[in-house]
Sequence to fold (66 residues):
Amino acid sequence: MVTASKRSSLSEPWERDNPKKKSRTSKPLGAAAKASAKRAAKKAGRPYPNMIDNMNAARKSKAGKS
Fold:
């Protein structure tokens, strides 16, 4: 049986509950992350980045800082 927390980690971003306001604050994407999101959108044939492009760019830039 899949628990609620396990289920939320497996579902799509638009199906998940919003994160707690206290635990995480959003920050604007940096210049490199914006460029990465724009490249991903262009590669996919879109005129501008969507939410998934932005999320992937933010995750990549966050991983690079560690």
